[in-house]
């Protein structure tokens, strides 16, 4: 089994780690274009062309499915990606977890990039899945870029800025950019009021990984007395095969994917 994932940068790590936890025997192909980050300010046409290039590079490795582990690419490029690659290659998009977050009744906040915040796409998801629930959209300028380069001071500053604009009474927080899941603990600490019930954080990595397995008729691995053999990891950066970037190792998910016996190559 081989699963490909694409993103502008290391935002694909949470979904890749989720696939690895569900099926450690699966080969993974990680295709990104960090040289062109950030994608948020780019035109939809530009995002679409860059997403197509990333998936074409991954498709050359003949995966069974490809996860679009990027909210921006899912918003703008999913129709073009499906038109080119399906039905031969299932394409699984990423949707912010607004529906499960709103199921608790709210209030809910959604952290997303400035380009996504207030967009017709996000507003439509709120209308369809959070009708009657109080939802606050919070733009997070600079956070995805700070996460991409593991700039701790910039991450703290961007998280603090967004937290200051987040209502104190929220019951759930949607992480509307895949990069944000890499710093979920820091976000939780910033928004959690002292003495209040724990705020639920909702990312998309687990759901999109499970959906990818369903699309190819695979099931999560059952616990076994002996560990399953672990799959191979192929990394593609801006169309060229490379090692997993050192910056990925700043995060738990990156260290999981790089850890032996998960082989590189």
UniProtKB/TrEMBL annotation:
Stated name of the protein: Putative glutamate racemase
InterPro entries per the UniProt record, alphabetical: Asp/Glu/hydantoin_racemase, Asp/Glu_race, Asp/Glu_racemase_AS_1
UniProtKB keywords: Isomerase
Organism: Streptomyces sparsogenes DSM 40356
PROSITE patterns, alphabetized: ASP_GLU_RACEMASE_1
One Pfam family it belongs to: Asp_Glu_race
GO terms (BP aspect): peptidoglycan biosynthetic process
GO molecular function term, any single one: glutamate racemase activity
Tree of life domain: Bacteria
